[in-house]
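[Automated response] Your request has been received and processed.

Submitted sequence:
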Amino acid sequence: MVDSVRGVGKALMSDRDVGEQTEATGVLSFGHNQITIGNDTPYNGSSNDLVLWSWKAGGNKNTFNVDDAGYATAAEVNMSVGSLNSGVYNQDEVWSQGTSASAAFNGDFFSTGFGVGTGFADLTTKPFTVVSQIGIWVRDFPPDGYNVIIEYNGVKYTKPGAISDWVYFDVPASTNTLLRIKCSASSDECRAVSVDGVVLVDNGVTPPSLPSIAPSAATVGTKQGFSIIKYTGAGSGSSSLPHGLLQPPNFIITKDLDSTSGWWAVYHSGLRADKCGYLNDSQAFATHAFWAGVEPGSQTTGVYSIGANANTNSGNNFISYIWHDVPGLQKFGSFVGNQDPEGPFVELGFRPAIIIFRQINNNEPWLIFDSTRSPYNPTQRYIMPNLPNGEYDSSSYAFDMLSNGFKLRVDQGAMNDLDDTIVFAAWAESPMNNLYGGQSNAR
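Generated structure:
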């Protein structure tokens, strides 16, 4: 993998845990609508068939680039430490005064919050004005088994729980004099309270800087929902990073550039933020601290979190490739297998050009398909980025790329095992929303 943030001649290999490699005769330049390659065998081997996938971010005119405009510093693109704090916090009061809920009003999403049980407990007795919404950030209330209940101005509101994310309650506009909370079963933590999107933090408390790490370089394409962020990890604890996009990420791939044993870390919004996959390995997605157990956008829309783990937040240099859903252009989701030759149909809203699949529960490979190598259905030519092998062609991995999505045509494990979850990342051949002036065609 080569990108304009790190520069030409700097390569990463998805099947290995080694750091950045210098390949002087690989990619030689990035142009407006082309790249120039040298004579290095992996890029331009004699008589070899090769495939190239490319994504456009924000250009490469300077160290920081947003929508094809170049800037010299992180501060100029609102990515410096603390640059996103404005408007995030309300510190008008000591909100926890008279209660035991101070851990819910410090702005810290990474530390233990206020314990919530099955009986009502006061969060705040201070008055605050609500226009339409109260948010409660909870650590571990599975939505299929727990409800979060608040009492606001004497009225009770109930919503399904969440894991490491916000639970929002729509309430009538008024000034509140008491906010209480409980859960329907067991107990867990409330780590933050928001009113109309602004987080309440006790007066006198210094809230976290957002972001807490400033990138050393970046390129951001806000229209296409893709950014590349280079940063140096904090070396300990959990941190927040800016991504530059207009909404929280759905898909993140991060790689340590310096380590000789740094694995590729993958976040996918089809799972929780406490789950992580490895692009360079077939291990099942597992519980790790890579993303600090905090969903992207929880602290504020413009940041994502990294945890106390060497694969995302050692003191080394890292690169992150970051995407979010854009209707008609790209989609990141999941489906559940039915182990039937007439497998699930997944609607994307566009005809896909590239699809990446990964079965999350077992030791299965990553699979990349594209419409260039498979111009006709069934699509069954694939590459496994976690292995150094070439292309495979097998009917055991067949599916159809359609004008509005894809349909599985196999009943085997890596793509359609019974009741297993498969996550995917898909990009369109021609954007449906005229992002680049194109339209999708039926297949």
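Summary generated for your ticket: The chain has three domains: 10-81+212-323, 90-200, 330-428. Residues 436-443 have pLDDT under 50 and may be disordered.
If you did not submit this request, please reply to this message.
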